[in-house]
Amino acid sequence: MKRILSLDGGGIRGVFSLEILLRMQELLRAEYDSRDLVLADHFDLFAGTSTGAIIATCLCWGMPVEEILELYVKYGRTMFRPVPWYRPIKKLFVSRYQAKPLSELLQRTFSEDGNGLVPAMLDSARLKKLLLVVVRNHTTGSAWPITNNRKAMFNDRALPDCNLDIPLWKVVRASTAAPVYFDPEVIELGGRPSVFVDGSVTPYNNPALIAVLTAVLPSYRIDWLAGPENIRLISLGTMRFSSGLTAKMGKLWLGNNVSLIPSALIQGIAWQQDYLCRCLGECIFGDTLDMEIGDLVGTQLPGSRWFSYVRYNQSYNAAALAKLVETDSQLSKLDAIQAIPFLREVGLAYAKEHVRMEHLI
């Protein structure tokens, strides 16, 4: 069986996903009696968007989960360092945080020498398995699910703008360049600069479906055999918050729209991707999608299934969110650094309750 691990975007809430991954690693180490097992020993393809791209690439690099979690806890505040007040006026309103600290961290992490002096390229042998990172090419206006698959159309060495020649850290940084939060990442392709922004500004903030399509559709040249007995897709969210109005918001006005619509669109599309995965795949585990659909676990649907599917995520409806906001009013935001301890607590409790060995194998 081929196994895919897919990781949603969600900023610092990636800590929630990391607690689930830690539990998965623990179960697999016990199952195979290997204290040194890492998730790259078990999964065949890692897919990620935004913060999920950081985690997916670290896992594909062969890092143990505890080491990645330490990066988030230790450098979380550094990654969200505000731009200085003296920034040039023309750039003052481009982004809220400096890109340099995150870029430097990624350069050190994804380098051949371990010090950031020799950058690893997308085709680095240090990547143990297949990797898919979602970015948006702002220059062309198109979503790019970019992989290290050497057979992929745009990874042809004969091309002057071969994707394999892009530094890996730049691919990951591009996927995390959330508009308003961070500056875009400029990458030269065949001598021409292209501007890239966060993969969450595409239909693939939840990259689970594009990951499995990349694995099975002939166009992408991986050509895995479809079927629930052949492919297991495990997808991790970063907590789902209701975008409905709470009593404290009062009447809907322009200010509400400005703050709510982007997150509502991202969450709605991510929900739809999850829904499609449950319809195209054989759903083994997942929370309730809504009161009418249920969770589709074990539901007999028309047609054959392409893969087996597990979805881990913690959902909060409007009432639960209102109560949660009393704990931390910033919790649902991408940059809620102060909420890391609480995110770890929620992730740990969720993982202990829901992650099972039979889901993983």
Give the key terms.
single chain; 361 residues; alpha/beta; nine-stranded mixed β-sheet; two-stranded parallel ribbon; 36% helix; globular
Topology:
Blueprint lengths: L1 E6 L6 H18 L13 E5 L1 H10 L4 H15 L9 H4 L7 H10 L20 E8 L4 E6 L20 H8 L9 E5 L2 E7 L9 H9 L14 E6 L3 E2 L12 H27 L1 E4 L22 E5 L2 E2 L1 H10 L12 H15 L2 H4 L1
Helix pairs in contact: 1-3, 1-10, 5-6
Can you describe what's shown?
The strands form two sheets. Strands 1, 2, 3, 4, 5, 6, 7, 9 and 10 form a nine-stranded mixed sheet that branches. A two-stranded parallel ribbon has the order 8-11. The protein is globular and about 50 Å long. The model has no long low-confidence stretch (mean pLDDT about 90). With about 350 residues, the chain is α/β, with parallel strands linked by helices. Helices cover about 35% and strands about 15% of the residues. The chain has helices spanning about 15-30, 50-60, 65-80, 90, 100-110, 170-175, 210-215, 255-280, 320-325, 340-355, 355-360; strands at about 1-5, 45-50, 130-135, 140-145, 185-190, 190-200, 230-235, 240, 280-285, 310, 315. Helix 1 packs antiparallel against helix 3 and helix 5 (about 100-110) crosses helix 6. Strand 3 and strand 4 form a beta hairpin. It contains eleven helices and eleven strands.
